[in-house]
């Protein structure tokens, strides 16, 4: 019988005895973290690596003693960030690559003298704070207030939304400390509302103005393309607001409808307001069209509001009488009978009669 093959190594040596010391663990290679970083850099594409190196160079040159070099570096950095944040579905690459340098740029900003360059740097820090600042610090708003006050929309929707959220937090802090809102902060609110209204984000504009308790500013920002959506959101929101905020939201919707001549919609809102007679009469007096006033009268009658048609609404006695009859539902029964005759339902009909009439149309 052939000998069994030795599985314990050459020469048939037996396995190590328990008394023998275990082999030492492999030594950790020095600079392992550095190798990981190098590997991470190796994972970047050539394009991303070039962008990373370019941004790092901008960071260095932004701290140069030569103002000309500083300005060129800051403008180049601004351009890279603006291009990347114009449409943000994930964290843009420039923000990722600049994350390690955020603290450096903040520290250098504190040492800069007041100048346009410092404002440019503040603009950049405001955008970087979008993803890098500590929650609750409101650094994006802080640096924005110290920046160049340029077009906020050029930095993208997410930046504007983030600013709006930080403004709401800042306003709450001011309220708690019983401090009035700064004029420059309100100007920034106006910029954000204008941006939202131009980019089909009416609910966000309304929410911001509600947060800072200046909803009346909304009227000047609506136009013919968005007033209906704005008023729809206002009327829907009013159902969930406490008094007197609910009436304020409805009143703003009423004013917007009047501004754009949508009188029937304005009347519907007027009937929901406190002191509704005053607003209803204002709708009547906004037009000289008798047919429109008849329509208003039918709406008022359906709502069950008792009101007198006076000379302020119409000076013509005949028109006044007609409108008053409609408001009082005097001829409501007559109107129903006229409708019944028009659709031929005055006499009872059997199902066969209805089917026969229907079949005539096929």
TrEMBL record:
Q: Does the keyword Magnesium apply?
A: no
Q: Which InterPro entries does its entry note?
A: RPN1_N (IPR040892)
**Region entry Disordered: which residue ranges?**
1-49
Keyword hit for Transcription = no
Biological process (GO) annotations? proteasome-mediated ubiquitin-dependent protein catabolic process
From which residue to which does any coiled coil extend? Answer: none
Xref: Pfam families: RPN1_RPN2_N
Q: Which UniProt keywords apply?
A: Repeat
Which residue numbers delimit the RPN1 N-terminal domain? Answer: 55-357
What GO cellular component is one of the record's annotations? nucleus
Q: What is this protein called?
A: RPN1 N-terminal domain-containing protein
- Where does this protein come from, organism-wise? Eleusine coracana subsp. coracana
């Amino acid at each position: 019988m052939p000998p069994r093959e030795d599985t314990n190594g050459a020469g048939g040596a037996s396995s190590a005895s328990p008394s023998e010391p275990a082999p030492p663990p492999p030594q950790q290679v020095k600079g392992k973290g550095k190798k990981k970083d190098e590997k991470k850099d190796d994972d970047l594409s050539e394009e991303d690596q070039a962008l990373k190196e370019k941004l790092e160079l901008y960071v260095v040159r932004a701290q140069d003693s030569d103002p000309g070099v500083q300005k060129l570096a800051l403008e180049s950095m601004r351009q890279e960030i603006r291009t990347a944040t114009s449409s943000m579905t994930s964290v843009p690459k420039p923000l990722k690559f600049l994350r390690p340098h955020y603290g450096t740029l903040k520290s250098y900003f504190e040492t800069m003298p007041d100048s346009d360059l410092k404002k440019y740097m503040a603009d950049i820090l405001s955008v970087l704070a979008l993803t890098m600042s500590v929650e609750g610090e409101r650094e994006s708003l802080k640096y924005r207030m110290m920046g160049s006050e340029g077009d906020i929309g050029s930095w993208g929707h997410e930046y504007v939304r983030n600013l709006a959220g930080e403004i709401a937090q800042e306003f709450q802090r001011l309220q708690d400390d019983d401090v009035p809102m700064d004029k420059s902060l309100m100007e920034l609110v106006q910029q954000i509302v204008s941006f939202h209204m131009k980019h089909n984000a009416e609910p966000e504009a309304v929410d911001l103005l509600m947060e800072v308790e200046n909803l009346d500013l909304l009227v000047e920002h609506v136009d013919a393309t968005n007033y209906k959506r704005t008023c729809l959101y206002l009327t829907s929101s009013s159902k969930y607001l406490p008094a007197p905020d609910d009436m304020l939201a409805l009143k703003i919707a009423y004013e917007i409808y009047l501004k754009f001549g949508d009188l029937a919609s304005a009347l519907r809102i007027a009937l929901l307001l406190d002191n509704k007679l005053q607003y209803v009469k204002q709708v009547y007096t906004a037009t000289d069209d008798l047919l429109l006033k008849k329509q208003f009268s039918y709406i008022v009658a359906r709502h069950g509001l008792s009101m007198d048609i006076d000379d302020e609404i119409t000076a013509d006695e005949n028109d006044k009488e007609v409108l008053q009859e409609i408001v009082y539902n005097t001829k409501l029964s007559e109107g129903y009978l006229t409708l019944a005759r028009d659709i031929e339902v005055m006499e009872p009909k059997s199902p066969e009669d209805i089917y026969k009439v229907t079949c005539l149309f096929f």
